[in-house]
Amino acid sequence: MSRIQSDMTLIEQFLRVADAYAAPESMSDAKLSMTLFNDWKRIGLLRGGRDQSTKSHEKRVQFMSDTWPDGAKWPEDVPRPAPRAHRPDLAQQSDVAA
Length: 98
What we know:
Blueprint: H1 10-22, H2 29-37, H3 42-47, H4 54-66, H5 93-97
């Protein structure tokens, strides 16, 4: 993972990555939230000030890096974990949501 100095919290970084991930398909927060958390309201709760564990953050950011949409641009001010060689299938949501 690259090291970028940022004044953003991990939640702010997560939401910037989530927004960039969802943008190409105009994916709603609820749909992305179901993909990442198996909970349609979780991203909305994060936007409202809720917290998530570091482990949860790392797992979901890695998943988005691994399945990054073609043509989408990762936010420059957020470190991106190296995509793994095996890109998880979005249909395998239980692996991410667990």
